[in-house]
Amino acid sequence: MRNLRSIGIAAGLALSVSVPALNAFASEPTVPPVPATFPAEGKIKYVARDSVLEFKALPEYHEPGWVTEKYVKAGKLPPVKDRLPKEPLVFKTANMPDGIGVYGDTMRHVIGGRPEGWNYGAGQTQGWGGIDIGLSECLTRTAPLFQVEAKDTEPLPNLAKSWDWSADGHKLTMHLVEGAKWSDGVPFNADDVMFYWDDEVMDPNVSPLNGATQETFGVGTTLKKIDDYTVEWTFKDAFPKQHLYAMAYGTFCPGPAHILKPQHPKYSKNTYDQFKNAFPPEYMNMPVMGAWVPVEYRADDIIVMRRNPYYWKVDEKGNQLPYLNELHYKLSTWADRDVQAVAGAGDFSNLEQPENFVASLKRAAEPNAPARLAFGPRLIGYNLRLNFSANGWGNPDERGQAIRELNRNEDFRKAVTMALDRKALGDSLVKGPFTAIYPGGLSSGTSFYDRKSTVYYPFDLEGAKAELAKAGLKDTDGDGFVNFPAGTAGGKNVEIVMLVNNDYTTDKSLAEGVVAQMEKLGLRIVLNGLNGTQRDATQYSGRFDWLIRRNEQELTSVVQNTVQLAPVGPKTSWDHRAPESGEVDLMPFEKDLVDIVNKFVSSADNNQRASLMRDFQKISTEHVYNIGLTEYPGALIVNKRFSNIPQGTPIFMFNWAEDSIIRERVFVAADKQAKYELFPEELPGKPGDKGPM
Ligand code: GLA
Ligand code: CA
Fold first, then answer.
1. Spatial distance between the Cα atoms of 525 and 415, rounded to a whole number of angstroms
2. Is 352 in the pocket of ligand 1 (CB under 6 A)?
3. Atom 1 of ligand 1, residue of closest alpha carbon
4. What ligand has the least distance to the C-alpha of 507?
5. What is the CATH number of the domain that holds 328?
6. What mean pLDDT do residues 624-640 have?
7. How many separate domains does the chain show?
8. Residue range 219-239, pLDDT digits in tens
9. At 486, which CATH number?
């Protein structure tokens, strides 16, 4: 009781908290220890939100000389002023760390994923690592907000250049950028936005890659076209400004309707599978609104992108962006990304796997180091997530169903969390000050985090065993693993299948640590290690008992992906969804979490929102909603020849650093340019054609 009171659980909460179980603990719940400070943390330079960009016409426009010479003069492309919108998006010079740039050079990415195809809107991954981020342009943009003070924060305009709210706050009118074109020259307009909404988000047979559903934008929300450059949202709540975040990457980035629509089952004889697979990785020159277009793909080798001649953003001198002519994505492993970036064979990495910290720091500290390395806040975290659906999501068998019931048992969850030695888990990744004790819930690096609202059940194996016994589990056959009670799943050993992403060393190390620690508790865990794509598919279809998941934006920013904090919709949660027909079988405390999230989304009052998130943190950690494993800072590694990389860019916050650094304005000074372009002076070709123009 003492500890709970002193952390304000009973006091600040309207919701009642149950405490009787406390007597069974050898050690009482407390708050997590203050994490250690770590070296080389970059400092962010804060700016006002409106200092980043604006939309306006400029007196003149420019492009790389070779584009004019080789393409415009030859009649292959209209002049640059006719390729740009009436009022392009203009990045303000004062917000550029190194100012106006020059054209040329390549950014060489290395990634661990593999592309399934280009149909993002139908759920295909392109292999991550910044590929889809660079192809996608979305109604709003949030990644650069890491440099804006939290109080000033509202998503930046992007494809939606402005918006107005109706007097009653239920309607939001968005004005789309006028005269912008897809990379093949076809106009972008409200039909692209409506195709995404009507035929991808609202079509139950289509699931966009980041899982947008109607609820992502609020229960009952609708969208309609007013004219070619105006769309109107209608919301059940008044002024739900929070939804502007859902209109950013990765939940509102429309694809090219002129290419996609003819393949969609509603407008063709295709099945949904055929639609999804209509644009395999070999399909080149997929029209995009992003700054570079895929022109070359070699399996297990490389994806090459060339500058989009119709890109609709410029600098204040009227130079059409991007500055960089080419992007590479070498198809390798995530660990290799770190190695290549510090060695100078790659240009960029999000250093996120602690196993590579020491070697990378050492190399980056050498005087001739090719790359800069700077740590950001402690925003990379991992949770153990339990499948909470007891009404059929993923069709579990008898054993699986019995595990779901256990997952929903609070004594069981307390046993699991108390049996975790988080210090040992962190140390197994990297020794030193980086990893911190993370009980679960919001990440300690977000502005919404409140340590005093965080309930931590310290490591206590004996206490954990007592909780397991309370959950009704005993080792009836004396082999060291607890059994189901007679009458459940044949009274066999409890066996839990844990889904793990095999593409990351860190995920595998954590998984092995969890298996070993659970064995000491008497719980047998079986690993289901899959590559990223298969793993995601397995998770989305609910075929897991437990899984290990790296935290996403709902825990690192709270305002991005907010609806994923609790099962507010049938398909919005990572670990608790409704079966095909049916509802989410919420546990009582989940209902409280859903209420909090809904209130948060509809509230515009910053103090109320902060207090709601303190409540969220208390309830979710007290009931052990997700089970934190560890958290630590990540570091951005970028080759030193690049300019305009904002100081202190976190590798992850509202989005990944590939977006936060605003790649379209990154450049290489003339005297530092390297000759990495594989397709010099080439531009993308026609959709579906092989190679460049
Ligand atoms: C993967 C990587 C991240 C980041 C994202 C971008 O998840 O692990 O570091 O590059 O892709 O989507
Ligand atoms: Ca047994």
1. 14
2. yes
3. 129
4. 1
5. 3.40.190.10
6. 97
7. 2
8. 999 999 999 999 999 999 999
9. 3.10.105.10
Q: What is the pLDDT of residues 572-612, one digit of tens each?
A: 999 999 998 889 999 999 999 999 999 999 998 999 999 99
Is the shortest distance between the CB of 128 and ligand 1 below 6 Å? yes
Q: Whose CA is nearest to atom 5 of ligand 1?
A: 129
Structure token digits, residue 196: 């995404």
| CB distance 229 to ligand 1 below 6 Å | no
Q: Residue 159: which residues within 8 A CB-CB, separation 6 or more?
A: 137, 138, 139, 176, 177, 180, 188, 193, 254, 289
Considering every ligand atom shown, identify the ligand nearest to the alpha carbon of residue 549 and give its number.
1
> Does the C-beta of 249 come closer than 6 Å to ligand 1?
no
| Residue of 658, 659, 663 with the most ligand 1 atoms within 8 Å of its CB, for mutation | 658
Final residue of a structural domain among 632, 660, 683: 632
For residue 529, the CA-to-ligand 2 centroid distance in Å is: 24
pLDDT at 534 over 90: yes
Question: For all residues of the chain together, what is the average pLDDT?
Answer: 94
Which of 331, 350, 504, 661 to probe ligand 1 with, by most ligand atoms within 8 A of CB?
350
pLDDT of residue 18: 44
The closest-lying atom of ligand 1 relative to the alpha carbon of residue 532 is 7
Is 70 exceeded by the pLDDT of residue 210? yes
The rounded Å distance from CA 487 to ligand 2 centre is 15
Q: What is the DSSP string of 274-310?
A: HHHTSS-TT------SSSEEEEEEETTTEEEEEE-TT
What are the pLDDT digits (tens) for 250-304?
Answer: 999 999 999 999 999 999 999 999 999 999 999 999 999 999 999 999 999 999 9
**Whether the CB of 129 sits within 6 Å of ligand 1:** yes
Q: What is the rounded CA–CA span in Å between residue 406 and residue 400?
A: 10
Asked if 444 and 35 count as a contact pair (C-beta separation under 8 A), the reply is yes
User: In this predicted structure, what is the pLDDT of residue 14?
Assistant: 35
Q: Which ligand is nearest to the CA of 523?
A: 2
For residues 666 and 598, membership in a common domain is answered with no
Find the mean pLDDT for residues 434-451.
96
Mean pLDDT confidence for 317-322: 99
Atom 10 of ligand 1 has which residue's CA nearest to it?
Answer: 129
CA of 422 to the centre of ligand 1 (A): 24
**Statement to judge: residues 610 and 641 lie in one domain:** no
Token representation of residue 349 = 């990495």
Both tokens assigned to 377 = 């806040």
Please state, as a whole number, how many other Cβ atoms lie within 10 Å of the Cβ of residue 168: 8
Assessment of whether the complete model's pTM goes beyond 0.85: yes
- Is residue 8 included in any domain, yes or no? no
At 620, the pLDDT band (50, 70, 90 cuts) reads very high
In angstroms, rounded to a whole number, what is the distance separating the alpha carbons of residues 20 and 24? Answer: 9
Q: Could you tell me what percent of the chain has a pLDDT over 70? A: 96
List the domain range (segments joined by +) for residue 83. 49-375+635-671
Measured from the Cβ of residue 264, the count of other Cβ atoms closer than 10 Å reads 23
Give residue 169's pLDDT band: very low, low, confident or very high (50, 70, 90): very high
Whether residues 297 and 328 share a domain: the answer is: yes
529-534 average pLDDT score: 97
Q: Residue 621: inside a domain, yes or no?
A: yes
The DSSP line for 164-206 is EE-TTSSEEEEEEPTT-B-TTSPBP-HHHHHHHIIIIIS-TT-
DSSP character for 433?
A: S
Residue nearest to atom 2 of ligand 1 (CA): 129
Q: Which atom of ligand 1 sits closest to the CA of residue 130?
A: 6
| Cα of 128 from ligand 1 centre, angstroms | 6
